[in-house]
Write a structure and sequence with these properties.
Layout lengths: L1 E3 L2 H9 L4 H6 L2 E5 H7 L7 H7 L4 E2 L16 H14 L1
Helix pairs in contact: 3-5
Length: 90
């Protein structure tokens, strides 16, 4: 099973040194580029640990290919995570 992770969950798991749980529960972990960009900002908590963990898990997303209601209420990371889910299920 694939999981598409968002920044809040990743930071929380990394903070309590539990990113390994994702590997135990899921066959594949994916994150959209925007989520990766959010969590690796220098100076943010857990940025170095997440950069290493997510190194080969970043997936490209084209937001032009989807329609999502209320797009303006969501951040780029959330939009790309939804789009990646839709891409994966297609």
């Amino acid at each position: 099973m694939i999981v598409i992770a968002d920044s809040s969950a990743l930071v929380a798991l990394s903070t309590c040194q539990s990113l390994w749980v994702l590997n135990k529960l899921f066959d594949e972990i994916q994150v959209p580029q925007a989520v990766f960009n959010e969590v690796i900002v220098a100076g943010k908590p857990q940025s170095q640990a997440l950069r290493s963990y997510l190194e080969n898990k970043v997936m490209p997303v084209d937001l032009k290919t989807i329609e999502i209601k209320h797009k303006s209420r969501l951040g780029r990371g959330e939009l790309e995570a939804i789009a990646l889910c839709l891409q994966s299920s297609a």
